[in-house]
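Hello,

Our lab assistant flagged a job as stuck in the queue for most of the afternoon. It eventually completed. Since we weren't sure the result was trustworthy after the delay, we are filing this so someone can double-check. Below is the sequence as submitted and the structure that was eventually returned. Let us know if re-running is recommended.
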Amino acid sequence: MAQRTRTCKKVSRKEAHPPANRGAAAGEQVRADIAASFQRVAVAHLEERARRAAGWAAAAHPRLRHLVVSGGVAANAAVRARLQARRRPDAPLGMRG
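-- returned structure --
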């Protein structure tokens, strides 16, 4: 099952069974949990896509040395941090944000 499908099912379960007698703070926590889960999945997806793109580019053009991530994606601190954390010195392309 795809990660996106698991996240959607998790959201559906949380919406179908809201916290009983816990007030607005519990509802806010549920929304925060859902948003964090979505961001985690989205960042992992972008990380995998960048990894595959770097591999394909390195295979097609061995002299390439950098992968540039720009625009809205690069503006996201979680995406930048995750991509920088995954950089390997031995990787065919260095990732720079």
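-- support follow-up --
The delay was a queue issue, not a problem with the job. The result is valid. The first strand starts at residue 66 and ends at 68. The chain has one domain: 3-96.
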